[in-house]
Amino acid sequence: MAQEMKTIGMIGGMSWESSKVYYQYTNEITRDRLGGSHSAKSIMATVDFAEIERLSFNDGWDEIGQIMSENAKNLERAGADMVLLCTNTIHLVSTAITDAVGIPFLHIADATGEAVQKKNLGKVGLLGTKFTMEKDFYTKILEDTYGLEVLVPSEGERQAIHDIIYKELVKGKFTEASKQIGLQQIRNLIERGAEGVILGCTELPILIPDSEVAVPTFNTTRIHAEKAVDMALGE
Questions:
Q1: Which of 30, 73, 133, 220 could be bridged to 40 by S-S, CB 3.0 to 4.6 A?
Q2: Residue positions annotated with a catalytic role
Q3: Sheet with 217-219: strands ordered across
Q4: For 7-63, what is each residue's pLDDT tens digit?
Q5: CA-to-CA distance for 116 and 146, rounded, in angstroms?
Q6: At 196, is the secondary structure helix, strand, or coil?
């Protein structure tokens, strides 16, 4: 069966802190599914996050789209059977990827929406960067395709978690103080009716353990990796 496994193409580096978790998850899930010494067939292309960060803060999304499409084409040429973008926020330019390649693109919001549906939840909180929480590229899929009501933190809270992500998490800094800020924001979302919480930044599950949250949490990194292995194994 291992010989039949398709090759997962990953665009990483946004940040490498989460990309290494993607690599770990895809291999662990493959080992658990197939047993023995099996591991995932994968190719990863990584970008310099400093460039992506600068462009995103300067509204340079067209340029980011060009960078992502070039990396996706490189993966396709290298033999990848699908494209996995190892970040939540940069899915804002997912159309640039789907327009550039002929292999399937696994959108993280679709994978997450399916996971929430399986839990039979109707109202969920969403934590992530301001781009993910405030623009509609992510929430629109959750709402329109999966019928979910999506709650986001207040404006001040959104700025606080955004700053934690960019000033700490993407640099490998995970503090107790920042964890408590995240947990308080989650408690506020639960008070507003959230039945579950989407950790919609690939570094957030490293900061906030699900064991400390009173409702189901959705680790988008893990969910995305599971979907990729499903496709790679034809499941």
A1: 30
A2: 87, 201
A3: 149-151, 123-127, 196-199, 217-219
A4: 999 999 999 988 999 999 999 999 999 999 999 999 999 999 999 999 999 999 999
A5: 9
A6: strand
